[in-house]
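Dear support,

I submitted the protein below through the web form. The confirmation email said the job was done, but the results page showed an empty box. After a refresh the structure appeared. I'm attaching both so you can tell me whether what I see now is the final result or a partial one.
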Amino acid sequence: MSRAVQFETTLDSVPAAWERPARERRWDLAFVGLLFYLLVEYTRLSAMYPVLAPLQVGKIAVALGIVGWILAPRGIARRPPAALWMDRLLLLFLISVLFVTLLAVHSDRAWTGFFDILRWLVIYFLITRVLTNDWRLRVFLLLLLLLNLKMAQFVVRSYLMLLASGVPGWALAKFGVGAGSTGFFSNASDFGVGMCVIFPVAGYLFFARESKLIRMMLFASTLIFLAAILVCGSRGALVGALASGAAALFRNPKKSAALMMVVIVVIGVIYFLPEASKDRVESGMNWEQDGTASHRIYLWKQGLKMFRDYPIFGVGPHNYPIVRFEHYNENDPHPGPFVSHSVYIEALTELGLVGLVPLILLFVLFFRQNALTRKHILATDPDGKQSFFYCLALGLDLGMIGFMASAAFVSVLYYPHIWILLSLSTSLHTIAARPKPVARIEKVRVDETSEEEFLVPTTR
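What the results page shows now:
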């Protein structure tokens, strides 16, 4: 075999110096703006410090990210087909929501919902265009984990403090413990959905080939996330945690990661779930006798009636509460403009089939994209099942399953969970599918009588 053929090889036999692009960008204005936005969104800075409210710090962070992205130099790297399809589907979904908004029953509320969706798609665009390498993705994910960990430990501490101060366990189980007084995590059920998303991500990353310190942090975070799910008082969150564990075991029945996730969840539910919460779970099994469960069933039934009357375009974003209160409140045991308490009823009634079909396709493509990511990883690394990227792709799958199970009982379509998962999936796939460096031999003339052969990086 000639030297030229011998060196025309794959990444496995290429020196480590060629394993990453030579000039991989780390810090720039776009990345800083994105991290700042994540901090603002998950800490609710304006709510914590009212003096910041007039400054619209969230919009400032997004503007910094956009300006930074515009100014940043960009190469000619192509986006993989799955990422392009995700972009197109999201654009189709936005157009569908726009049509639904134009035909909404209450246009003022509908436009608020439309701009909520538009905001999340802008964030998706930033994340997928700024998180373009391994290092940035890791830093972003680390900050996301830490922000969720901050909320989780706050909920656990709040539960213990309230219990110690004399608040009865049944009250904590019934009314829940949220992660603050404002924002989309203040409600225990909304908070539980967020924990169901991040819990399996941290749990599966624990099994990646990382340093002991990082793995210890991930294991501790996983336990705290589970503890927060157990004490927050959300029955839907318990369903989500069990669903993600069952999905892990069903997909990989012989894999230690899947088995450990199930064992941790089962032990937590059996031995650490408060007795008052166990009583609420049992009460929910007999929903006719449970006031909360029976009212949610009632809201779902009214939502199905609403969909029957508005099947194509729905009633418009954010319109379910007021339309149900105005026209579908017969025999309502608790009169008031309540939300649907189910992301599926919410999407069905507010977006109709026009918005629901592209939304379902987004879920399908999400799982397909993660599968392709794992395929790319194993194609370049036969032992890649313990790589950071492979474990993250599995964790994102389980995070979406946790979301889909827990969100069946909560209206969270306009919250960040879906859009952050879609963004991370697309960024991860784009990085994993990036052309891998290979090496080739080039002859360079060093003087008039001789030539030297040099190993030169290239991509394929």
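Response: this is the final, complete result; the empty box was a page-load delay. The chain has a mean pLDDT of 85.
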